[in-house]
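Hi all, posting the design record for the shared folder.

TITLE: backbone redesign
STEP: 1 of 1
STRUCTURE INPUT:
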C-alpha cells in the first residue's frame, strides 16, 4: 500500500487518502465517438431516380391491364381445385358410411372368424383418418382458392 500522500495507481485516486484535485487531477477520458481530422468521410454517389413511366394517350381505347400473377393460370388449375373439393367431400361421405357401418355391426354382432374381426377393425378404425383427410382436403381447397388469384373475365 502507498505511504502517506502517495496515490496507489491500482485504485481510483479520488477515493484515496491525501487526494488533492489540483495536484492529482487527470483530464477525464473522452467518451463517445472520436472526431477524425480531415472532415467527414466521403459518401457514395446517390443512385438516380428511376425514369418516369410513359403516360397512355387518352385518345386510345382503354385497355385493362392484368398483373403477371393474375395473367398466368395453369391449364388444369380449375379442375385441380374442384378435384380437391370432390375428394374431400367423398372422404367425408366414406367416413360417415363406415362409421354408420361400425355402429350397425356393433349392434348386430359380428362373427368370430378372422375376416369378421378384420372387417370390424377396419370399419371401426378408418372413419377417423378419413374424416381428417376429408376436412384437410376441403381446407386445402379453400386455401388454394384464396391464395392463387383467378383470371377475371369481363
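Okay, here is what came back for every position:
SEQUENCE:
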Amino acid at each position: 500500500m502507498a505511504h502517506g500522500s502517495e496515490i496507489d495507481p491500482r485504485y481510483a485516486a479520488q477515493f484515496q487518502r491525501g487526494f488533492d484535485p489540483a495536484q492529482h487531477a487527470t483530464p477525464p477520458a473522452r467518451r463517445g465517438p472520436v472526431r477524425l481530422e480531415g472532415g467527414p468521410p466521403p459518401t457514395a454517389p446517390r443512385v438516380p431516380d428511376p425514369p418516369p413511366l410513359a403516360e397512355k394517350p387518352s385518345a386510345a381505347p382503354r385497355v385493362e391491364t392484368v398483373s403477371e400473377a393474375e395473367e398466368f393460370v395453369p391449364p388444369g388449375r380449375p379442375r385441380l381445385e374442384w378435384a380437391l373439393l370432390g375428394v374431400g367431400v367423398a372422404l367425408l361421405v366414406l367416413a360417415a358410411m363406415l362409421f354408420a357401418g361400425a355402429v350397425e355391426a356393433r349392434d348386430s354382432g359380428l362373427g368370430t372368424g378372422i375376416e369378421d374381426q378384420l372387417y370390424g377393425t377396419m370399419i371401426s378404425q378408418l372413419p377417423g383418418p378419413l374424416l381428417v383427410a376429408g376436412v384437410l382436403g376441403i381446407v386445402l381447397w379453400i386455401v388454394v382458392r384464396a391464395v392463387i388469384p383467378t383470371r377475371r373475365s369481363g
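COMMENT: The two ends are 95 Å apart (CA to CA).
Let me know if anyone wants the other runs.
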